[in-house]
Amino acid sequence: MNTSILVDHEQRVNRNVNAAVFIAALLFFVLLLVVKQVGFARSSVLLGAAAATLLIRFLHNTPYAYLCKYLYALTFAAAIQGLYLALGTSGVGVVYGYFLGLVIMAMYFDRSVAIFYGIIVLIMNAVSWAIIPEIYVANYQMMSWMFIIMLFVSSSAVSVILSQVASDLILLAEDKHHQANQMAANLGKTLEEIARHSEESSSIANNLLDQSQNIVAGMEENTAATNQIATGMQEISSTAQEIIAAAEEIASMLNDLTQKSAEGNQQAQDIEKRALTIQAEADKAKNHTLGIYQDIQARVQQAMEEARVVEQISGLAQKIAAIADQTNLLALNAAIEAARAGEHGRGFAVVAEEVRKLAEDASSTVESIQSLTHQVRAALDNLLENTSSMLEFINKDIVNDYNTMAQIGVQYREDSNRFYRLTSLFNEQIGRISASMMQINHALESATGIIQESAAGAQDIARASEAATRAAESISNACQQMAEDIQKLELLATEFRG
């Protein structure tokens, strides 16, 4: 029973009992002394009770305050017992003071005090009965005393029960009060947590709303960039198709040259037959002149054919390089936008990386083609140098040799042989060029297939970006709705706290 409510109640009862017992003891002291005139000695019992009550008051605010209720019970029982003995045979009504003490002790709501008081009263009366039985016999008959004792014991039991019930009720009330306070405190904390989480949720919802709007804008940019990439891929594919068509045209031209070379071989054989009659006179001049002339002529013819192919390939290579640069730039922009998109743009970043690798491969192929064009251009320079040598030789020697040839027709046979070898070499070079063109054509067809697949992938990415944009817009709408719901929750929490 060491609870705050019972302790406060006990202190109040102590103060009231102290005042009541002190005043009652003084009044009965005066009554006995003046009215009943029982003498000071017999009346001093009540004066002692008043003094004891006054002394007990000094224990109220000490660590021994818990003893006050027992001391008051003892003092009150002693005062009633003294009053009964002081009145002697006139103390018939004093017996009811014991019952008044039970009521006073029950006010403490502590059964131990009621039990203590009942035992003290019974002990005091038993001792007094043993010492002065005539007073008890004179006031009541034996049956009456038995009834009074039974009534006092039953009243004490009722007082004990009522004290326990009252104590339990007070404890229950205090516990409920604590629970109510705890519930109120918990409810206040809950409302504060709701308000705090509402603010955090509102901030998160606003951030999600801003981020989803940024995602929508970024996905729209990604869609536009992807469409640009797809358009660029289609342009690259178209250009590659043009290159393949040009390569096929070059192959057709090479076939024509092969046929013409075969015709030249046949003509050389005819010249050989016609030059048999003048072979002896033209051997030296023919071997010296046509050897250099046909060699230079072969280089010139080869260089001219290579130059024609190189000019076309160089132009196409520049177009491929420009398209590859544009594709690389678009892939870089797509990778940047994918990085902005975060987790949603990871798949798009992979495709953008593959597009960038494809652009790099195209750039590498263009560099190889440009390297080949440089080699052909070097051959052209060599052709020009050899052509100069040939012209110088013609200016110095060929004129004299031709004068000799005018006289010696046999030289035609040697010329026919050299022409035959020239056309054979020309056929060999044409075969090599044809093989190279086939390789280039195959590489372009492979690149075209990859570009077409990349274009299809870019279109798929564009469609996925559009779907992601719609999803981001849905998220944005949900975030906005969540922010509105949070504001309503905060308003309800504010109204509840108010």
Task: Characterise this structure.
By secondary structure, this protein is an all-alpha fold. It folds into two domains: 4-140, no CATH class; 202-497, Helix Hairpins, CATH 1.10.287. 91% of the residues lie in helices and 0% in strands. The chain is built from ten helices and no strands. The protein has helices spanning 4-36, 40-56, 68-87, 95-106, 111-131, 133-139, 142-274, 279-341, 346-407, 411-497. Helix 3 (68-87) runs parallel beside helix 5 (111-131), helix 5 (111-131) crosses helix 6 (133-139) and helix 5 (111-131) runs antiparallel to helix 7. The chain is rod-shaped, with a radius of gyration of 64 Å. It starts with a helix and ends with a helix. The mean pLDDT is 77.
Which range best describes the helical content: under 10%, 10-25%, 25-40%, 40-55%, 55-70% or over 70%? over 70%
For the termini, the CA-CA separation is 37 Å
Q: Say what the CATH topology of the largest domain is.
A: Helix Hairpins
Specify the oligomeric state. single chain
Q: Overall pLDDT, averaged?
A: 77
Count up the helices: 10
As a percent range, the share of strand residues is under 5%
Anisotropy-based shape? rod-shaped
CATH class of the largest domain equals Mainly Alpha
Radius of gyration: 64 Å
